[in-house]
Amino acid sequence: MTRVVGLVVLGLLAVGVGVGEALTPSTEHVLLVGDSIMRQTGPALTRQLGDDYTVHNEGVNGSGLLTPDYFDWEDQLEADLARTDPDLVVMLFIGNYTDDPDELWTTPDGEVIDTVHSQRFAPAWGRQVDEAMAAIAETGAQVVLVLPPPMVTGELQAVVDALRAEYERVAADWDFVSLADATEAVGGENGEWVASLPDGNGSQRPVRVPDTVHLAVHGQRLVAREIANAVRQAG
Asked: What are the Cα distances from residue 198, in Å, to 2, 11, 57, 116, 185?
């Protein structure tokens, strides 16, 4: 038996295949794209997915889909897809925008979107998500699109609700897209913003940091768990 195994290994080496590569099961490659919420959730998601997945965390703090002068996701996504060749893409954006008049988004019909509260904001954002899905479709990768977590004020929640509706539409329009819901992870009983939630031992632990938007460590773990479940189901 030892001689047979030795011959197999020598044969692999002879054709230029590394022993470690040949004998180690391949992993699923997961590309994370998004803003700071995605970026900070990435490490917890990597741990929860475990050794069966290779996670490429490309989230960029402060980035959004309508601010290419700050960070051009259209070009970056194309580069990330080519570099990582993912089996699955996770996308999480909560709607970062700008108040710089030189960086405001202009719609195809020439209308300038001056604020996230504009009725044109969410549809324009949704069109950019569709553009991203078209690029991903060419790779054959599956997509998990993450619905944003709740916001602390009604004004901000209205923005997030409009984006959630666009994401739900995208998932209905593209058959390789499934949803994960960050609100299920860090929202209250009725999906409302909460500062803390119980951990596995029943103790209350913060899920949001003082700025009310970003995730505390416990919140990162909860959102990561929600996404990990969706990733496994999509795979």
From this structure: 54, 55, 27, 33, 11
Q: Check residue 216 and report its DSSP letter.
A: P
77-95 as b/e: b if 16+ CB within 10 A = beebbeebebbbbbbbbbb
> pLDDT tens across 213-229, in order?
999 999 999 999 999 99
pLDDT tens digits along 108-162: 999 999 999 999 999 999 999 999 999 999 999 999 999 999 999 999 999 999 9
Average pLDDT over residues 60-64: 98
3-state secondary structure of 173: helix
34: left (phi over 0), alpha (psi -120 to 50) or beta: left
| E strand segments, 47-195 | 53-57, 88-92, 105-106, 112-113, 142-147, 177-181
Residue 181's beta-bridge partner residues?
A: 147
Residues 73-108 have pLDDT tens digits of: 999 999 999 999 999 999 999 999 999 999 999 999
d(CA 205, CA 199): 6
